[in-house]
Known about the structure:
Elements: E1 2-5, E2 10-13, E3 17-20, E4 27-30, H1 32-41, E5 58-59, E6 62-63, H2 64-97, E7 111-114, E8 125-128, E9 157-159, E10 165-170, E11 189-193, H3 198-209, E12 215-219, H4 222-227, E13 234-237, E14 250-255
Antiparallel strand pairs: 1-2, 3-4, 5-6, 7-8, 9-10, 10-14, 11-13, 12-13, 12-14
Amino acid sequence: MERRHSAEGLEVARFEGLEYNGDAAGLQYVPPGMARNGAANGPHVIESLPEKGSPQRRICGLPRTGFWILLALTTAFIIGGAIGGGVGGSIAAKKGSSPQPPPASTTAFTTSSTPVTSATSTHSERSVTASTTSSAPVTSGTSGIAANPCPGINQTVVTGSTGSAFTVLCGVDWPRGIQAMNGKGKVSDIGRATVYSIQECINTCVGSHKDDCKGVTYSANLTSSFDGGQDGNCFFKDQAGIYFPGGDTIISAGIIGG
């Protein structure tokens, strides 16, 4: 405040701008015109300015509360997806690595009708897989399974009744008309018989045909041989033949050096 001298005496002049108002908190702004007029015309009027609220802080253009809620939801979604994918992959891997049960075996007896001769052959054999039961081989008649030492006897040497040595081959047939092992012509049948072992087949061949017997083919399955009209199960050969697959009960034997 400042003092001014006038004709009437001392006069109190008000400053223009901020003034103190005892009834209001803080300094109040009084416009210049009001300050001048107020002193002369009446009570002093004070205009209060509205308080400016502090601006709300934002993150990425969003209110702070909204931003943190959105971030929490996004994080939960990502973590949930990762956990779900990991669990699914683990289950799939465990399922893929689980051993599959082996297929049940239903094989009992297998019967196959397979020609064992060439186009010019006059006989054929039907092979029936021998049973693995402990029933003894038949030693008479024209049905049943006779002695079958295969596969243990395969590629062993059996000596005939005349001293001739024969190499035994399991599962090999030498039908008439097949190529000879020595490359000289084709195999021919020179006789047949009904026997009950490969040893008996060799002995019968060399006993009846002497030096002409160069090989034999024996079928342990009597039923198959006679049902096929072979009238025997031991066939005498004038030569050993090249490899020709036979059934499990077919055995061939060729003379060594023949």
